[in-house]
Design goal:
about 250 residues, alpha+beta, 5-stranded antiparallel beta sheet, 10 helices
Length: about 250
């Protein structure tokens, strides 16, 4: 926009000079006091029209930011994969997923918004990633939003105990909706293949919740749920909160 605005402004000035706007006397005075003005305008139009220097600088800055952010994300993902490899039984390297979610207002939820997945990092293609747009209190990431803190859920243990809709409803009535992640039975059946799910908030400079980072695997909640995992997830969430979501 700066490049185009500069070219437009220079073109308008040359057009005004050609048609003596606002007056011929005005341009005679300009040329008398600064004879190089017209040449300078032509030079500026040429440079900003051909080379677009502001756009080049911006693109270089964006590229550097994107490379730096990707390096941080892949470093975290590598650490999480290594943790999964060390537990017993080891997690298949193609199974773990690292997701980055952003809170956005949508037509369905114009006031409170919902969490939209802006990036997923994974080495495998199966099982397929389900479409999921949780609101506050729905799913592990929705609970992370609701309580604005780190949340981990052993989904595999829940699945072993809640084998049908009646058991699910009974468990929910006794322990509350948060105990089943705010999900219905059908929704629970869609996501319970991810045996361990962890989520940590992303906060902006005013400490306001703007999204979250989540990690999920097929099993191993008890072994993974420790300082090392939360350190990696919190470190990444702090970086995203500071740098923004544009380069994830």
């Amino acid at each position: 926009m700066l490049d185009k605005g500069t070219v437009l402004l220079g073109t308008l000035c040359l057009g005004a000079r050609q048609y003596n706007i606002p007056s011929a006397l005005f341009w005679e005075q300009v040329v008398a006091e600064a004879g190089y003005a017209v040449f300078l305008l032509i030079l500026v139009i040429g440079v900003f029209g051909v080379f677009s220097p502001w756009e080049s600088l911006t693109e270089n800055s964006r590229l550097n930011g994107r490379v730096g952010m990707q390096r941080q994300i892949l470093s975290t993902f590598g650490q999480l994969l290594d943790m999964g490899r060390r537990i017993k039984p080891a997690i298949n390297i193609t199974d773990p997923s690292l997701h980055i979610w952003r809170r956005k207002r949508t037509l369905r939820h114009p006031l409170s918004g919902e969490l939209l997945r802006v990036a997923t990092y994974r080495l495998g293609a199966t099982p397929a990633t389900r479409s999921f747009h949780p609101t506050r209190g729905i799913g592990v990431i929705g609970l992370c939003w609701k309580y604005d803190k780190e949340i981990g859920v052993d989904v595999a243990e829940l699945s072993q105990n809640l084998t049908d809709s009646s058991r699910f409803a009974d468990y929910q009535s006794h322990h509350g909706v948060d105990a089943v992640m705010g999900l219905s039975w059908d929704e629970f059946c869609r996501i319970n293949h991810r045996g361990a799910v962890f989520a940590t908030p992303v906060r902006d400079g005013r400490s306001k919740f703007v999204g979250c980072v989540s990690f999920d695997v097929a099993h191993g909640y008890t072994q993974l749920n420790g300082h090392h995992l939360w350190h990696e997830l919190n470190r990444l969430s702090n970086i995203i909160g500071h740098e923004g979501f544009q380069d994830v």
